Amino acid sequence: MSPRRSDSRDRMLVGASELLREYGAGATSIDRVLARTGAPRGSVYHHFPGGRAQLIEEAVTRSGDLMAKRIDAVMAAEDPLEAVDSFFAVWRERLVESGYRIGCPVAAVAAETNDEAPQLARSAAAAFARWQETLAAHFCRHGLPEARGTRLASLVIAALEGAVIMCRAERTTAPLDAAATELRELLTHAFRDR
Amino acid sequence: MSPRRSDSRDRMLVGASELLREYGAGATSIDRVLARTGAPRGSVYHHFPGGRAQLIEEAVTRSGDLMAKRIDAVMAAEDPLEAVDSFFAVWRERLVESGYRIGCPVAAVAAETNDEAPQLARSAAAAFARWQETLAAHFCRHGLPEARGTRLASLVIAALEGAVIMCRAERTTAPLDAAATELRELLTHAFRDR
DNA sequence: GTCTATACGAAGATAGAC
DNA sequence: GTCTATCTTCGTATAGAC
Q1: Most buried residue, A89, A193, B10, B178, by CB count within 10 Å?
Q2: For the whole model, what pTM was predicted?
Q3: Do the domain assignments include residue A54?
Q4: Mind giving me the DSSP string for chain A?
Q5: For position A91, which CATH number holds?
Q6: What is the number of other CB atoms lying within 10 angstroms of the CB of residue A184?
Q7: How far is the CA of A115 from the C1' of D2 (A)?
Q8: Residue A143 Cβ under 7 A from any strand C atom
Q9: CB A171 within 8 A of CB B113
Q10: What is the pLDDT of residues B173-192, one digit of tens each?
Q11: Is residue B23 assigned to a domain?
């Protein structure tokens, strides 16, 4: 019996996610995933008949799901302002600890999208949409009108993704810190006026 | 005498910028730049002794400079709120007209940064920094305290870049529109309280 | 599920002629 | 400044054995 749902398959997905966030989609080759994970060459197309595209697509979906769960957990536990702050804090830590090597795997794929692999764009879009909806639902639960909650959730994600990219290039947390400060201001007003 | 500062050199830089914004850094190969521009193969390393990395680096710098000039021009002509709105409007148009194919060349490079080519990250960082400083200067000129202007400028750029990435993946302008609306709200407060 | 071998193409870079 | 090889490396994908 196979090690339930295959060990090397999962390892490849994890490895692909890591490569995506560290080096981007273009650099996430099958070879590098194998080198990093030690997964067996011979079973790549057994687990991923769709080849590289399928591997990356599934890695993106997996990363997106994990992040969505984290968003849900944090938003359920804390008040919305604290929760948003803690997202930014987590990313700040992640960036510094990795020497600014780690970014967002979903954004990496979305930024390199081309027409030849529309599935990749779709999996990234699905992740973004799910994060946005999760965040919006919590905002609305705390009293924001639906349209406002939707817009603010979208902005938070966009600002976070954009700031992470800037931080990596500039090797500073300044963009992330600026975004966190100003978004807190905006959210404070939004929830006060509700 | 050479066509002042070489014609094919410039064409290659333009072509590289286009490929960057449409397909990302990984897909911006010398071959594709040549195919797109019709520039002569034999002179690549004559114009760009540093090879592909130098070509992309200069393309990013060039794109960054162009955008900085546009920011400066718009901010000088309009009041800051209108100006920010018009940036988002320009991007919205660009996305729709291109069928969501066109993104930001600077962000594309920044998102695919790896340790092997630190010059690329640096040129992207320089572009981001220049945009941010330009925007901040205008914000402060209109009355914002320096720290606030700096933060807001940074947020505007981060939100714009993040939203563009999301729009391309989702094939909607919704993220861009949401960001524009909420940033206008935030900026309105900031300039009113000044 | 995993192994080895291999076909095939794309890409970066260099050499030397013109 | 430009041209034509050519070397080399890497990456995808497939075939067929175990």
Answers
A1: B178
A2: 0.97
A3: no
A4: --STT-HHHHHHHHHHHHHHHHH-STT--HHHHHHHH---GGGHHHH-TTHHHHHHHHHHHHHHHHHHHHHHHHHHHS-HHHHHHHHHHHHHHHHHHTTS----HHHHHHHT--TT-HHHHHHHHHHHHHHHHHHHHHHHHTT--HHHHHHHHHHHHHHHHHHHHHHHHHTSSHHHHHHHHHHHHHHHHHHHH-
A5: 1.10.357.10
A6: 15
A7: 34
A8: no
A9: no
A10: 999 999 999 999 999 999 99
A11: no
Give the integer Cα–Cα distance in Å for A47 and A45.
5
Q: Is residue A30 part of a domain?
A: no
Which range marks the domain in which residue B148 is found? 62-193
Note whether B179 contacts A166, CB cutoff 8 Å: no
- State how many domains chain A has: 1
Q: What size, in residues, is chain B?
A: 194
Interface test with A, best of B112, B120, B146 (most A CBs within 10 A): B112
CA atoms of A6 and A10, how far apart (whole Å): 7
Give the number of other Cβ atoms within 10 Å of residue A92's Cβ. Answer: 17
> Using one digit for the tens of pLDDT, what is the confidence trace for A28-46?
999 999 999 999 999 999 9
Q: Which single residue is written with the structure tokens 């064409």? A: B11
pLDDT at B93 over 50: yes
